Amino acid sequence: MSGGSAATAPGSTDAGDLWLRRYQPVADPALRLVCLPHAGGSASAFLPFTHLLPDWVEVLAVQYPGRQDRRLEPFVDTVDGLVTHIAGALGPWLDRPVALFGHSLGSLVAFETARRLAEQAPESRVAHLFVSGRVAPTTAHRTTAHLLSDDRLVAKLAELQGTDPRVLADQEVLRLALPAIRNDYRAAATYTWRPGAPLSCPITVLTGSADPHVPTDGALAWHRLTTGETAFRSFPGGHFYLTEHAEAVCRTIRTATGLAMRAPAPLKPSRRPV
């Protein structure tokens, strides 16, 4: 499903599809890592991954509408809506095993995308699910941040320490950024967990050791959502630990997917855009 723009965005996979960014194309990848950003985040947050992961991994970063080059497009304000678009956009890229990496809101979207792909394309190989900075969706985790005033929402962003203080001090930049942030918080707040068949792929749960939003019991609850193995990795820092520890996070990704990559083979002839 396309983003509706006729122009090709920097790093986009195709002129008619702005949902995915491929900053560093790989000719014959053994794995595609699909990265889903946090509330208010953009695809460029995962640009470092393209340089830190081995050359057999192709990174596809999701760009939600309403920000950066998609700033004039209407927001999608539900997790289900995002999943529908993302699963559709991924169709041509499932000729290789796919792993999903989501941070915060992106973890919910990644999990539900994995479930959607299992339903719609069971022949595709979802090799791994990485969930970062988020408790399992079976754990009550309601937020009303989207209802906060602008000043209180900015204070919350400062508390999370994931936004450059210079951005928070720039009223013009904030005026452009806050609608996307508020929209994404609304998507998280209105998400409802629906029981279903567990995933079969392994799950790796990544957290910041000082993240007050991801208590241990909430992180551990992810293991109930797959019949595969579940691993847990904690890094020093708060909610946005991965900004400081991107290299270690990528080592974790490489190690976790290493066994699956020993004998990579496409499932079918490639249908990827050229």
Automatic annotation (TrEMBL):
Residues 32-255 form the Thioesterase domain. GO terms for molecular function: hydrolase activity. InterPro entries: AB_hydrolase_fold, TEII, Thioesterase. Coiled coil: none annotated. SUPFAM superfamilies: alpha/beta-Hydrolases (SSF53474). Keywords: Hydrolase. Belongs to the thioesterase family. This is Alpha/beta fold hydrolase.
